[in-house]
Amino acid sequence: MGTVKLLTDAEVEGIPAANEVFDDIRATRKSDFINNFWRGLANDPPLLRRTWEGLKAVMAVEGALDPLTREMIYIAVSTANGCSYCVHSHTAAAKARGMTEAQHAELIAVIGLAGQTNHLVTAMQIPVDEEFLV
């Protein structure tokens, strides 16, 4: 159960600043669907706007990383941070962008291996090799 109310479209329509962001989300994503994350953030319109603008600036622009790669990175970071909601939402987004079952399986293998080796090197406090310092 959440700690904030998930605002309905009718409630958001009564909050012009939040409604404007919802309209931009719909236009940017070319979808009428507004997920629960944004509905929760709508309780604080300035935070909603900042978060949406930040997400758009990284995830919804042309860049050196293709959209699928960005989503897969988001899944990995969300896994590391223990954010089940984000793992689910960005896995759905990655699949919508063409992630195959084989790619998903490899991603999970990489995430699992990285988590294991990160913990081992942290536990052993292995010094960084001179050659790796950039």
TrEMBL record:
Pfam families: CMD. InterPro entries: AhpD-like, AhpD_core, CMD-like. One of its GO terms (molecular function) is peroxiredoxin activity. Gene3D superfamilies: AhpD-like (1.20.1290.10). Residues 46-126 form the Carboxymuconolactone decarboxylase-like domain. This is Carboxymuconolactone decarboxylase family protein.
